[in-house]
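Table S2 (continued). Query chain:
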Amino acid sequence: MIKTAVIGVGNMGSKYAAILQDKLIDGMELAALTRVRDPYRSLLQNSIDSGVSVFESADALFDAVERGHIKIDAVIIATPHYAHEKFAVRAFKNGLHVLCDKPSGVYSRQARLMEEAADNSGKVFSMVFNQRTLPVYKQLKAIVSGGRYGALKRVNWVVTDWYRPEQYYKSSSWHATWDKDGGGVLLNQCPHNLDLLQWICGNPARVQGFCHEGRFHDIEVEDDVTAYLEWKNGATGTFITSTGDAPGMSRLEISLEVALLVCENGKIRIGELAQEMGGKEADYRSTSTDFFRKIKGTWTEIEPEKEEHQYERVIQGFSDEISGSGKSIADGREGRKSLLLTNAIYLSSWEKKMVDIPQIGSAEEIDFEQRFEGALEKKIR
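Corresponding output:
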C-alpha cells in the first residue's frame, strides 16, 4: 500500500483525506495529516482514532520523515498557493511522490523548481486538474486534436459561473490578498479553465489582459478579467471570467477551419460547413458571388456521459502511476503551462501592453519570471 500524507486539511485537503479514509483508492491509504482545522476534524475522526498521525505543520511532518519517525511514500499538497513549491520540493528531496492541488504556485518559477526537483528525484509528480476527467472536455480535446475540422481560427470562453458572495472572501484571512493568496479569480478558480484551454487548444503565444481589482467585492485582487489571446498560427481569442456575475455561465466556442464547436451545459454542438458549402470555407469565401448569404452550417449535438467522481479519478491515476499500472490524469509539468498563461495575463494588465508567453526552457522564460515577480512584489507592497 502507498502510505500517503495529506498536507493542509482545509476545504479541499479534507476532501482528499476523506477519499483515502473511505478506501476509495486502490493501492493507497491515509497515513498522516497536517493542519487539521476544527470544522474538518470530525470528518476525519475515525482515521485519527485509528492511529493516523496528525502533525501541526508540514515542516513537522517532514522533520518526522527525515528522522525516520514515520514512513510514508507520497504526499497530497492542499495548502495556500505560495507554499506548494516549498513543500513539493522538500517532499521530492525525501524521495516522496507528489500530487499537488492547483495551481502549481503563484509564479511560474515555482512551477519550474518543482519540475526540476521532480526530475532529480525520479518520483511521480501530478497535478489536481480534475476537470480533465470530464467526458465533455475529453471529447472536445479529441475533436480539436483529431484535425478533421482543420486548424484553430478563434477561441472564446466566457466563464462567469464562479460566482462568490462577499462572505466567501472574508471566511479566511488569506483569501483575496496578494501577499497570502497571490491573486483572485485567475489564480483561485480559473486554473481549471486555463489548464483546459491550453490542453485543448495549446497555449497562446501572447496576451493582452485587463484585470479589474475589487470591481464587485471589497478585495484588493481581481474579481473580473477580460483577456485577448493570440496563437502562433494567427488564431485569436478571448477569455472572460468573473466572480461577480449572476446568473453565471460557461460557454466555450472554438472556431476551426471548417466547423464551429460550442461547449455549454455539458454538451457539444458542432456546426459543420462542408455540406452546405460543397468544400472548404476558405475556397467558398474566395469564389462565392453571393455577397450576403448567411451560412447556417449543419449542426449535430453530442452529450457525453457525466463524471461524478472527478477527484477519485485524479487520486487513482496518481496511485496507478506510482505502482506502474497506469498514468496520472495530469502530469505535474502541465501546471507550469497554465501558470505561465496566468502570469502573462496579470503582467499584461499591470504593464498595460501585450505580453509574449515564453517557451518553456528558453532564456526568455527566465527574463519573464523576473519581470513578473518584480511586478507582483510591487502589488504586495
